[in-house]
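Could you join me in thinking about how sequence relates to backbone shape in a protein? To get us started, please write out a protein record for me. Would you write everything just below, so we can both look at the same thing?
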Amino acid sequence: MNFLELFKKPNLIAAHRGDRSKKPENTLSALVSSVGKCDFAEIDVELTKDLVPVILHDETLARTSNISEIKTFEARAPWRVSDFTFQELQQLDFGSWFDGNYEPLLTLEKALTFAKEAPLFLNVEIKDMSETFADSVVIEKIIAPIKKTQSAQLILLSSFYHHYLPLCKRYAPSIPTAALEADKHQKELITYLHTLEVDAYHPAEKIATRELVENLREAGFFVNVYTVNAPSRQQELFSWGVNGIFTDNLGE
């Protein structure tokens, strides 16, 4: 089964940054904990200064690591991910902020290797790095470990920075893509999504409407809504025809 075949199943549950209510987000333990509790997991990818794809949500390291406690890095605040080499980031702890347990930095390659072994479908969200790295460099560096691990059948690539999405299709035509949107829809949305060559649309819960979902589904796009934690709201969205929802709470 590949990701597009997965979308044929109803009422899909996606683990937002892994099982983040039980484990530190975007870590290997969060992915491990999500297995058996969801249909796919969502993770975020950034590039280090030396172009290693790593799994982090924020542009900076302050919230989800212990970097503020390391004297040698003190003068480098606000600690942007792209200002540090992979070797430097390996010195950090990405788990103690959450539950007191050490957690190493997760690379995209290691996440993909785990996903293939589990197996676990992964929505890899490509963070907007357009002000730091050329778009083509970003996509090349992210596609490379997918090809290396031969995990393309398990992957969906998404981004708020929509310029990445046609590039994804150019470098890896078989991997489905999705456009993320937070605040308002593009004019002539369906035409716009066709120009991006995407397979799915991921709107924020606050901008999702029944009419939107019905129109997109009729046009052949899959629709997955983020971030929806209330079970009653999840069921309402599914009744509209939404394929999947992203949630922070997977239960036990």
Notes: The chain has one domain: 3-58+106-247. DSSP finds ten helices and nine strands in the chain. The first helix runs from residue 3 to 6.
